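lol ok so funny story. i was supposed to be doing the assay writeup but got distracted and ended up predicting the structure for this chain instead. priorities right. anyway since i did it might as well share w the group, maybe its usefull for someone
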Amino acid sequence: MAGVRAALMRGGTSKGALFLADDLPADAAARDDLLLRVMGSPDPRQIDGLGGAHPLTSKVGVISPSAQDGVDVDYLFLQVVVDQPVVTDAQTCGNILAAVGPFALERGLVAAEDGVTEVRVRMVNTGGLATLRVQTPGAAVTYDGDTELSGVPGTAAPVEIVVEPSDTPLLPTGHLVDELAGVEATLIDNGMPSVVVRAEDLGVTGTETPAELEANDKLTARVREIRLAALPLMGLDPDPDATTVPKIVLVAPPAAGGTLATRSFIPVRVHQAVGVLGGASIAAAAALPGTVAHDLADHAGGSRVRVEHPTGFLDLQITTEGDRISRTAVVRTARMILDGTVYPGPARPASPVRTVQER
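and the output, tada:
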């Protein structure tokens, strides 16, 4: 059986398999069929593959040299659904993005410098750009450091991610507040299409555990209704099963000394933490006066926005110029767990692959 070279890496609070594009089939359908067999989907336990039986641990990054001037590498993110034969490129992932810089350096796509090496990345899913600052003492990647992340044991070397402003409207509808399914909401995209809603407007506190929120049938039905209403307003595919965005984010006053408490539906399960780019959109909503998040937030931290989530917090630096976000930065960590050859499971002809068209 032919194997494929892959790296299993943690990026932020997610884990996934990273590949060079040249090591995968060029045909998208063939590639996705292979990735389903590599990750062990569809199977709730993903027992026959690399996946960890949760959306946060069933992720893939496909990396290639970029043809765009001033950009080092292209990063295509693919979500491999755990219990369905589905591979989707409907969104990107900022946590796995943290692993892209070290991976590109390890694979020789970018030459490491002594000290810190910058890797400029184009996120293929969205067209967005980000610069990653990777620790490279002695011109070699190090994963050792003293940076802590909520939801990740121990410490590691920091990877600073600076997300560049995009041409995508920050407020897709042009409004700070819209009414969706009878609820006030802020529709925002500072890297991740998101719908921000006051938790109290949906009858919860916003500090419940993910399991409690997922078990609340009335709440999850309302979340689906809000998401369905948001899709066309944000210029997204109106079929809710064709995309994993927008994320529905419940916000509440901070409960642990941060800026804002959050719970994020991604889009059905509730995130155990918060995505990097989802956090960037939440932080932007907190920073802009007039949104549903702004008045709930504690702004004592100034440009630092601490987004509280179920397992801790995510710190971001948000710089505003009037009604726009001019700079978003966040520190993550990453780690190489395994670098080697992965052997895909047997083909399952009875399980069709459904791939969302790359954009």
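The longest strand covers residues 324-342. DSSP finds five helices and 19 strands in the chain.
back to the writeup now i swear
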